[in-house]
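Here is the promised in-class demo. Please do not try to memorize the tokens; focus on the logic of going from shape to residues.
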């Protein structure tokens, strides 16, 4: 048995994967993504696999931050994804030659349907979740993402993780508990994995790895209830996550999650943010969409037919600059 870590970006998956690697799970053969100021302790992601996942999302018409419709929402990507199976199988076999291993990449929340036949049934999912407003603040700081889109991504990733991890052994980890009581939380993860047949080394000293100073954002129930960008569906989902048991022999499948995922994708495709509009317009084209066209489409979405027009002089300067 080996471990796949699932969770939304900026939710503590790197901290969990790093702990598991230091406790004895093999992080894989290959170059790990280097540490960054946004993750000074490291990402604990295999760079080649991460880039493959990003390439696959692009081939299916999306990115990690604007995912395409995929199973269970749509079966259309299956044939396109099948073209990438030989490369995926070879890459996986080269990377995870020593078991038990740990594999972490938030994109797996979206692509686990593709990887599960390759991984097989001999794996345990460690699912990590975090308060949605804390995730948004972290994405805003790192990527400049707005609240509405960040919260929709938080919702979609967590729904997809729960859907794709269904029927597998699962350990549930709250980021808040991980950072507030690291010793007890790591001990609980170790004991749960031992029950699933994965024996780890004696727990490390968590504060040496899970430094509380690395947590920059805190939010509670009051902020979740009052923030205007948070939807009732997102509040309900966070409540459901907080009520999950610490471990499952077989994570239950919840059929309505598929419809909720489809709704998230539909709302992301109605974004008025230029970055999202640009990517959506490119989905139906084989060339790069001109920036002027993106801005015109943004103004149309925001203002309708009454969109303010640019002054000719400004348009001329932009054309010269490009």
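The designed amino acids, position by position:
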């Amino acid at each position: 048995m080996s471990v796949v870590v699932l969770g939304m970006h900026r939710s503590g998956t790197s901290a969990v994967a790093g702990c598991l690697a230091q406790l004895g799970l093999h992080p894989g053969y290959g170059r790990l993504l280097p540490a960054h100021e946004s993750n000074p302790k490291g990402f604990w992601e295999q760079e080649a696999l991460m880039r493959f996942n990003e390439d696959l999302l692009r081939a299916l018409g999306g990115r990690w931050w604007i995912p395409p419709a995929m199973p269970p929402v749509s079966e259309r990507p299956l044939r396109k994804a099948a073209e990438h199976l030989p490369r995926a199988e070879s890459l996986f076999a080269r990377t995870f030659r020593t078991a038990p291993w740990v594999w972490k990449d938030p994109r797996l929340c979206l692509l686990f349907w593709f990887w599960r036949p390759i991984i097989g049934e001999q794996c345990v999912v460690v699912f990590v979740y975090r308060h949605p407003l804390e995730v948004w603040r972290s994405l805003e700081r790192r990527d400049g993402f707005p609240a509405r889109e960040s919260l929709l991504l938080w919702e979609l990733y967590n729904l997809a993780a729960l859907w794709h991890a269904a029927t597998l052994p699962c350990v549930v980890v709250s980021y808040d508990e991980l950072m507030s009581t690291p010793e007890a939380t790591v001990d609980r993860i170790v004991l749960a994995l031992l029950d699933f047949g994965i024996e780890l080394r004696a727990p490390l000293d968590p504060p040496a790895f899970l430094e509380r100073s690395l947590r920059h954002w805190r939010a509670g129930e009051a902020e979740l209830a009052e923030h205007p960008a948070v939807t009732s569906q997102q509040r309900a989902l966070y409540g459901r996550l907080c009520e999950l048991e610490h471990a499952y022999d077989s994570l239950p499948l919840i059929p309505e999650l598929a419809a909720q995922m489809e709704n998230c994708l539909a709302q992301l495709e109605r974004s008025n943010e230029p970055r999202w509009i640009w990517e959506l317009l490119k989905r139906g084209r084989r060339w790069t969409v001109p920036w002027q066209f993106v801005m015109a489409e943004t103004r149309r979405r925001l203002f309708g037919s009454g969109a303010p027009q640019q002054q000719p002089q400004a348009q001329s300067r932009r054309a010269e600059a490009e």
